[in-house]
Specification:
heterodimer, A: alpha/beta, TIM Barrel, Helicase, Ruva Protein, domain 3, 2 domains, eight-stranded parallel barrel, 8 strands, B: alpha/beta, Dihydrodipicolinate Reductase, domain 2, seven-stranded parallel sheet, 10 helices
């Protein structure tokens, strides 16, 4: 039986779904439930990770300190994980603090072609004796060859595993196979996949990743995450059990945890909205959805036009300000017509 | 007029672009271009252009201290600290293009005259050069600024290895600069690298949370300062004039480069290099007058 390492970013990716307004109380409640289910890693924080609370991507209700301290108190079986993007989070201001609070797992992320910005953060976290992974976001945007090159850099810096993210929910299963196979055949460390559900393929793509050799998967309660949401964790566990993979997660307890999450932390259960489909097709970062929606309404512009324009500009995670520029451009164009 | 003799320390993207730009200066003479590896692309360019080069790093100046009056440090924040220890003893003026923050921060459109009173002047960061003048204008027209945030996106191809390793210092120094020049209570800086092809132009967004937005006066101040920046960075432009949206002021600017070493998208090189040359020329003019 193959062991699959599950990381649960309900309290991190899910924070996108509520514009980063998860409260300490909600974090405590879900951590307790996930801990009971023995979820291996529970990832907590602002949607864009450590140090990301900002006007650009959204001001969080709680500080990193409060979020992580609360999670720490409520996790004993599960490890506490964080998502760290250099360019947002600095070592001195953010990472040191998180390590002092006692995080166990540090996932250092960059846009899929920019792995070299992760060198210092990965090295630092390794020096501190933490479990460290490299994360390549928006991985649909580059070829398998380039992805392997970037993943190898992270491996060299000290990453103990590489997770590629389908941050836009843009993957079709054949590209999952191509990219995960390329990675597993070139790296000496485990490979993982983080799905989004814009095209309804989150679970299918996750399983495809395993078949291509991945051994790490991300999933969230009810799929709670940015845009159309992630792979739904309780479904994922059920399917993995049925396929004969081993996750060490207590099935009934993860079902319970998802009920609790639905009741206590979600304003809405993620569904694939019309604009999520467009976003997935355009290959736009899922975390943009709340701001696109708000600006479309504010300036009376069609969300679909915004997504396609953003896709054409090939914007990356963290470039939320470009949404404003795109809206201004659409308005200007409308005026001329 | 006697030109000021300058040396460039660091043969990466910044140093090489600077070298090319200095060839056009009436006030500066690039006497030495210094790196660590004669076969690097920057070195090759310098040799090709007939500039004196050295691969001995700071040793080149230690061995021949009279070779220059002013040194542009285009290495990394970490190396700049070590270089300044040596260059200060040698009595050199240093224009520091790393985010080491050893000298006072200089934004030519704001504090050129005061800056050249120092022996070490820091050029903040590319994002700082783009955003701080706008933050300064916000500070001039608004009291009690709660928060300013500046976000820059640059083309991946324009960010060399030192820039990438210095991301934390970039953030730290930019935040510090925005705070000092705007007097905002708290500040935040974010940097995105975008690998899209064709390459994106350097673009910076400034967000501010203020008590009461005064967009009209701000617009006037911004127009004035943008003109001032344009006098030394021709490709600097206001992309989205101040709007008030979702409880915050938003301004967007963009910097298109002159396309000297890297193509025009690398406005991040131009904005800091043009600023650095403006400062060095000011030293040269002062010396000629003095």
């Amino acid at each position: 039986m193959i062991d699959i390492l599950i990381s649960d970013p309900t309290l991190r990716d899910g924070n996108h779904a509520v514009s980063h307004q998860l409260s300490a109380k909600q974090v405590a409640i879900y951590c307790e439930a996930a801990n009971k289910a023995k979820v291996p890693i529970v990832e907590v924080g602002h949607g864009n990770g450590l140090g990301a609370s900002s006007l650009q991507v959204g001001i969080a209700l709680e500080s990193d300190k409060v979020l992580l301290e609360t999670a720490r108190k409520n996790l004993s079986n599960s490890k506490l994980g964080i998502h760290v993007i250099p360019g947002f989070a600095t070592i001195k201001r953010d990472l040191q603090l998180a390590i002092d609070i006692g995080v166990d797992v540090i996932r250092v992320a960059s846009h899929c072609s920019e792995a070299d910005i992760t060198q210092r953060h990965i090295s630092y976290a390794r020096e501190k004796g933490k479990e460290v992974y490299g994360v390549l976001m928006m991985s649909h945007m580059v070829s398998a060859t380039l992805l392997v090159e970037e993943a190898k850099k992270m491996e060299l810096y000290g990453a103990e595993g590489i997770i590629i993210m389908d941050s836009a929910g843009a993957y079709l299963p054949n590209s999952v196979t191509e990219k995960i196979s390329a990675l597993t055949s070139s790296l000496n460390i485990p490979v993982g996949f983080h799905a989004h559900n814009n095209l309804g393929l989150a679970i299918a793509n996750s399983i495809t990743a395993l078949e291509a050799g991945a051994t790490i998967l991300d999933g969230t309660a009810r799929g709670f995450g940015a845009g159309a949401g992630n792979a739904q964790l309780e479904v994922l566990v059920a399917v993995l059990n049925k396929l004969g993979y081993n996750t060490n997660i207590d099935f009934y307890k993860i079902l319970d945890a998802s009920e609790i999450a639905e009741l206590e932390i979600m304003q809405n259960i993620p569904v694939i909205k019309s604009e999520s489909i467009v976003s997935g097709l355009a290959g736009v970062f899922s975390g943009f959805s709340k701001q696109v929606k708000r600006l479309a309404k504010e300036f009376n512009v069609d969300q679909r036009d915004i997504y396609f324009a953003l896709g054409e500009k090939k914007v990356v995670a963290g470039q939320e300000d470009i949404i404003i520029e795109v809206v201004m451009e659409i308005l200007k164009k409308d005026k001329h017509e | 007029m006697k030109k000021l003799r300058v040396a460039i320390l660091g043969s990466g993207n910044i140093g090489t672009d600077l070298m090319i730009k200095i060839q056009r200066s009436e006030f500066l003479d690039c006497v030495l271009f210094i790196g660590r590896n004669l076969s690097s692309p920057g070195m090759a360019k310098a040799i090709n252009m007939g500039i004196n080069v050295s691969d001995e790093s700071i040793r080149a100046i230690e061995k021949n201290p009279n070779c220059c009056d002013l040194v542009f440090d285009c290495t990394s924040a970490k190396n700049a600290i070590h270089h300044w220890e040596i260059l200060e003893k040698l009595g050199k003026i240093v224009v520091d293009l790393t985010p080491a923050k050893l000298g006072g921060l200089c934004i030519p459109a704001v504090n050129l005259e005061e800056s050249v009173k120092q022996k070490n002047v820091n050029m903040v960061t590319c994002g700082g050069q783009a955003s701080i003048p706008i933050a300064f204008a916000i500070g001039k027209t608004h009291k009690n600024i709660e928060y300013i945030e500046v976000v820059s996106s640059i083309a991946s191809k324009s960010a060399g290895p030192a820039t990438r390793l210095n991301l934390d210092e970039y953030i730290d120094t930019t935040e510090y600069g925005v705070k000092i020049f705007s007097k905002a209570k708290t500040t935040k800086a974010i940097l995105n690298l975008n690998p899209a092809t064709p390459c994106i132009d350097m673009q910076t967004t400034i967000f501010a949370k203020v008590d009461k937005a005064n967009l009209e006066e701000l617009k006037m101040e911004i127009d004035l300062i943008v003109e001032k920046i344009k006098s030394y960075v021709p490709g600097y432009q206001l992309l989205v004039p101040p709007i008030y949206e979702n409880g915050r002021i938003v301004v967007m600017v963009k910097a298109i480069g002159l396309g000297d070493y890297l193509p025009k998208y690398a406005g991040n090189l131009d904005i800091i290099n043009c600023a650095a040359i403006t400062v060095a020329e000011e030293y040269a003019k002062n010396r000629n007058h003095g």
